[in-house]
Write a structure and sequence with these properties.
This protein is about 50% helix and about 10% strand. The protein contains 6 helices and 3 strands, in the order H-E-E-E-H-H-H-H-H. Helix 1 runs parallel beside helix 2 and helix 5 runs antiparallel to helix 6. The longest helix has 15 residues.
């Protein structure tokens, strides 16, 4: 098969592995400029993008599809989180909150607090709901301070 038909087959297979989302993923398949191996690039507005580099020069389309299937299986939680995202009006603001939550390892409570503070100025109801439902880590509630 040709590189073009292999790339289309890989793209179709990767696309079929992704959970259905309100706004679909963009999937691009190419050869790495460094190694020549297949690379699958996944983009979605609720994600900073995912790239899967086969890393193995000369790997055929079947091996690449199997490897991506295995790798995507390790990321099902993230893929579901992204698929659950609403159609976004304020993409930059939502993604900034998501980035900060990741960098600073915010809990769900911290995400809810930040979203509650800024939602009236910048977030839609759906965006706020997605952030508070899907972003942050589980942690015990803090002990109230004596001065509150």
């Amino acid at each position: 098969m040709s590189d073009k038909s292999d790339a289309e087959r890989i793209k179709a297979s990767v696309s079929a592995m992704l959970p259905e989302a309100r706004r679909p993923w963009t999937v691009a398949v190419s050869h790495s400029s460094n190694t020549g191996a297949w690379v699958a690039q996944l983009d979605h507005e609720a994600s900073h993008g995912l790239a899967f580099d086969m890393g193995e020069i000369g790997a055929d389309a079947d091996a690449t599809i199997a490897w991506v299937r295995e790798t995507l299986g390790a990321h099902t939680g993230e893929l579901r989180r992204i698929a659950a995202a609403p159609l976004m009006v304020n993409v930059d603001d939502v993604m900034e909150i998501r980035t900060l939550a990741h960098i600073f390892n915010w809990t769900h409570l911290e995400v809810r607090s930040v979203v509650a503070l800024i939602r009236r100025w910048t977030l839609t109801e759906d965006e706020a709901e997605w952030l508070t439902s899907h972003i942050g880590r589980d942690a015990p509630s803090p002990t109230p301070s004596w001065d509150f």
